[in-house]
Design brief:
Blueprint (H helix, E strand, L loop, with lengths): L3 H4 E6 L3 E2 L2 E2 L1 H13 L6 H14 L2 E7 L14 E11 L5 E12 L8 H15 L4 E5 L12 E2 L2 E8 L13 E4 L2 H18 L10 H5 L14 E6 L8 E10 L2 E10 L3 H12 L6 E7 L4 H5 L6 E8 L1 E5 L2 H7 L6 E8 L7 E8 L2 E7 L7 E4 H9 L4 H6 L3 E3 L4 H9 L12
Helix pairs in contact: 2-3
This protein binds acetyl coenzyme *A (ACO).
The site of acetyl coenzyme *A has 22 residues, from strand 6 and helix 4.
């Protein structure tokens, strides 16, 4: 029986431009990912993706058929694609951990279910672990694919709709002031505000280079002027730099006039409430829709008419993967002191073993201990990833049947230890 290597050759390379355009390998790789995600091959989008990928330091991996069928897409078009790069993740208390991000995973329909994803994921995660990454992360197209590779859902997002046909009023008046901003102003404000959000929000993933398009009033994908987008900034006091911003646009949905919140980044209470006060004050709006709302949303509690806010969807957002358990567990701060021994099962091996976590004055120190050391909790690598960030409690994961408690009270202890002092949330799509 033919092996993977008989049929395919795997090439890993850095994307590059020649005379401002993606070189042949880069262009073919990007065009192939667009087939996988049902996106068009607009040359502007392909160029912008290449520029963004270079800015991020992405490494592309392509799987190429050794014997392509005559007349099929060119030999330089991969039948499988995969990208990896490094960005930081806030793991709590302002601790940022450089993590290995996985993106653009596609396998051509004519080559699927032959183990190509498994081959790529196994090989690339091993390389990421060998290069010293303690964590990997991705956002998933489907929720049933990545658990088998040790990824667990770590942050969630909500889609909300606010009925603006009822009066919009906040219970507390925010400080500071909101004004509409020009795209040029936003290009300076947005990266700084996001950096503040990223430094203070557990679960935040640093943003990729292509976000600069949105900050400049351009379409994220094509870098063409986005004529529908509007921007506003929040300023905490006269003359102070802006500490929050929102990008939004108006769309029609049948008879409804809808304000769509595109990107709202507000690291402070006043910025968050001030920007919402502004959005709620815009006339000729029937609904406000926001698809990146936090699960623990202050707006629900801030609204006088809280029933006007409806959650219309919720899903997993960032999936984490622990590649080095002692390093990852030692990197984040903890809400409660204590000691826990965790037995972790990991089919890919990276986080497999028994680990003792000691927390003193909120600082964690984790070490690998002997396989036979008595463990208080037992879980698989995907569940460890979910537990790690603190967005889901150990007790809840225990109730879901994902953590076995071998010492009475250990689930409660882990719940207190892993709790974050701020809601776990992120505003980066990658
Ligand atoms: C991080 C990201 O980029 S998310 C985006 C992922 N890409 C997409 O959704 C684009 C469209 N889909 C595809 O390109 C492909 O179908 C992929 C990448 C999802 C799967 O690629 P394949 O090469 O067919 O997967 P492969 O044959 O290696 O399967 C590996 C395992 O995952 C499972 N699997 C693969 N696809 C799916 C799926 N859609 N749902 C559930 N399980 C799946 C397989 O059953 C197999 O399980 P096993 O090894 O435990 O028996």
């Amino acid at each position: 029986m033919a092996t993977f290597d008989d049929d395919y050759v795997v090439r890993t390379f850095s994307p590059s431009l020649v005379d401002g355009k993606p070189d042949q390998a880069t262009e073919a790789w990007l065009a192939a990912t667009r087939i996988g995600f049902h996106e068009d091959s607009d040359p502007d989008s392909v160029r912008e993706s290449a520029i963004g990928a270079i800015d991020d330091g992405r490494v592309f991996t392509g799987v190429y058929a050794r014997n392509p069928v005559a007349g099929s897409l060119g030999d330089d078009w991969p039948v499988g694609t995969y990208a990896g790069y490094t960005k930081s993740i806030n793991v709590g208390g302002g601790a940022l951990v450089d993590s290995y991000l996985v993106s653009d995973v596609t396998v051509r329909a004519t080559h699927r279910r032959r183990g190509m994803l498994r081959h790529l994921m196994t090989d690339r995660l091993a390389a990421a672990a060998a290069s010293g990454h303690a964590l990997a992360a991705l956002t998933a197209s489907e929720s049933t694919i990545y658990r088998r590779f040790g990824f667990g859902p770590a942050t969630r997002k909500r889609s909300i709709v606010i009925d603006r046909r009822s009066p919009f009023a906040l219970l507390a008046q925010p400080g500071g002031r909101v004004e509409m901003a020009s795209p040029t102003e936003l290009a300076t404000v947005a990266p700084r505000v996001f950096a503040q959000f990223h430094a203070t929000t557990p679960g935040s993933v640093d943003r990729q280079g292509q976000y600069a398009n949105a900050y400049n009033g351009l379409d994220y994908g094509t870098a063409k002027p986005d004529k529908n987008v509007r921007a506003a900034i929040h300023v905490p006091s006269p003359g102070a730099p802006a500490d929050g911003y929102v990008l939004y646009s108006m769309v029609s949905d049948g008879p409804l006039s809808v304000l769509k919140v595109g990107d709202l980044v507000a690291p402070t209470r006043d910025a968050f409430l001030g920007l919402w006060d502004f959005l709620g004050a815009i006339d000729l709006v029937d609904e406000i829709r926001w698809s990146r709302a936090p699960v623990e949303n202050p707006l629900l509690h801030a609204l006088a008419g809280s029933r006007d806010l409806k959650t219309v969807g919720e899903s997993d957002h960032v999936w984490l993967r622990v590649l080095d358990a002692p390093a990852a567990l030692s990197a984040r701060p903890y809400g409660h002191d204590g000691s826990l021994t965790l037995r972790v099962h990991d089919k890919l091996g990276h986080a497999d073993g028994t680990f003792r976590l000691d927390v003193t004055d909120g600082a964690g120190h984790a070490t690998r201990v002997g396989e036979n050391a008595p463990a208080a909790l037992e879980l698989d690598a995907a569940t460890l990833a979910t537990l790690y960030l603190g967005g889901v409690s150990a007790s809840l994961l225990g109730s879901a049947g994902l953590v076995a408690e071998h010492r009475q009270g250990a689930l409660g202890e882990a719940t207190r230890m892993f709790a974050q002092d701020r809601p776990v949330y992120g505003v980066t799509d990658f």
